[in-house]
Specification:
12 strands, single chain, globular, 256 residues, 3 helices, mainly beta, Porin, 12-stranded antiparallel sheet, Thiol Ester Dehydrase, Chain A, 2 domains
């Protein structure tokens, strides 16, 4: 991203940032808003949600404008608006800041799964080529692969190790991208290939610590009327809860 003014940033929608449908990956849109808001406010993300309104196609230029609506002693309430080709494509609302009170450990427990190096690569279908999935390494820690989808319903819980090779310091923006893996997991409990389009992405940051790999523990909650819901718990290998993420997803069968 390039800072264009005190309140405006811009970036090009390249292959590294797109879905297999050749438009901006939802998690990358939320991530862009968080980068801009953290720089504008000078504070880290506590919570943020993105509401998706339209598409930003591959090759398009996205402009992100920030508005620090309320700046308090510890918390800034703010929003970022992203536009592409004259259209508003997403809005990010966020709270940013820091406090003093902390618990000694998370009140959740990371699932017992093999280490990343002991897990098989998560093989993606060929239709996912030439997209963000070529640039994020994932390994399957719990659950079944896309290649095992045979029409039989499966578990709504899966766990995926994810990393951006060479990236050791996770940020709210990076975690927002990993959190968007929820949208692809409707397929697993349903047992049929589905296309998931995010209506919203929410990230709640707990603790950031240096780590290359992040475990995405994904729980799909329900699918009704064409819309699914799910949550991801994002862990470091040491068992630190980095963040939680949740989504509403427009889902349809993708029998290709």
């Amino acid at each position: 991203m390039t800072r264009e003014s005190d309140h405006t940033w811009g970036f090009q929608v390249s292959e590294r940032l797109i879905t297999p449908g050749h438009f901006l990956f939802g998690g990358c849109g939320l991530a862009a808003g968080l980068v801009a808001l953290e720089e504008a406010s000078g504070r880290p993300t506590i919570w943020a949600t993105a509401h998706y309104l339209s598409y930003a196609p591959e090759g398009g230029r996205v402009t992100v404008t920030t508005d620090l609506a309320v700046v308090g002693g510890h918390v800034t309430q703010a929003r970022a608006t992203a536009r592409c080709e004259g259209r508003e494509v997403l809005t990010v609302n966020a709270a940013l800041g820091t406090g003093e009170l902390s618990a000694s450990s998370p009140w959740l427990v990371m699932p017992e799964v093999p280490a990343p190096e002991d897990c098989p690569p998560r093989v993606m279908p060929r239709r996912f080529d030439n997209s963000i999935f070529n640039h994020v390494e994932t390994r399957l820690a719990l659950g079944r692969s896309f290649m095992d989808i045979d029409g039989t319903p499966g578990s709504p819980v899966t766990a995926i190790w994810a990393r951006v090779p060479g990236h050791f310091v996770p940020s709210a923006a990076t975690l927002a991208i990993f959190g968007d893996y929820v949208s692809g997991c409707v397929t697993l409990p349903l047992g049929r290939n589905t296309m998931g389009r995010s209506l919203d992405n929410t990230i709640r940051v707990a603790t950031l610590e240096p780590t290359e790999w992040v475990l995405c523990e994904i729980h799909m909650h329900a699918l009704a009327g064409g819309f699914a819901q799910g949550t991801a718990f994002l862990w470091s290998p040491t068992g630190t809860l980095l963040a939680t993420a949740s989504q509403s997803i427009a889902a349809k069968l993708w029998d290709v």
